[in-house]
Amino acid sequence: MVRNRYLQQYTQTNLQTGVENATPHRLVQMLYEGALDVLAQAKGAIQRRDLELKAKKTNHLITIINGLRSGLDHDLNGEIVENLDSLYEFLARRVFAASRDNSVEILDEVADILRTLKTAWDEMPEDVRKLPKEALEKKFAS
Q1: Which of the residues 26, 31, 110, 135 could staple to 131 if both were Cys, CB 3.0 to 4.6 A apart?
Q2: Which domains are delineated in the chain?
């Protein structure tokens, strides 16, 4: 019991330190990683028919997806941002449907899309990752 509390405290402190020291690019990576982790937990809960945990994890996943969505900068590049906004909205609806229908298949669909987004984000060139907002606006103006 005590060991679990220390482990929780260590994990929370480690996460908080990681967030505080992260670049904006890394924060988005962390959200994608967290979404995929929580999605796997939701999938496992569905497979075990643990309805309480499924509800908790799918709600958490929707919260992460909405966090990604709310972080979009609509002033940066309208078309890309609008497409991502629509995609995140679609993903949140699909997670809700997966929870409602206890569907592992729908969660697999969501996971595939999240992995594709994460891979694209991870492969962003280093020089673009470090550009200030103003430079990004010029570079990607539509």
Answers
A1: 135
A2: 24-139 (1.20.120.340)
56-65 burial string, b = 16+ CB within 10 Å, else e?
ebbebbbebb
Q: Where are the alpha helices (DSSP H) in the chain?
A: 2-20, 24-48, 51-70, 78-101, 104-122, 126-129, 133-139
86-78-59 Cα angle (round to 5):
30
Cα–Cα distance, 93 to 98 (Å, whole number): 9
User: What is the DSSP secondary structure assignment for residue 125, as one 8-state letter?
Assistant: -
Residue 108 phi/psi, 5-degree rounding, is: -65, -40
Tell me the HSE value of 138 on the side-chain side, using a 13 A CA sphere.
4
List pLDDT tens digits, range 12-44. Answer: 545 455 566 678 888 999 999 999 999 999 999
User: Which pTM does this prediction carry?
Assistant: 0.80
Q: How many CB atoms lie within 10 A of CB 43?
A: 22
| Structure tokens belonging to residue 12 | 């929370």
Q: Which two tokens stand for residue 5?
A: 């509390």
SS3 (DSSP) at 121 = helix
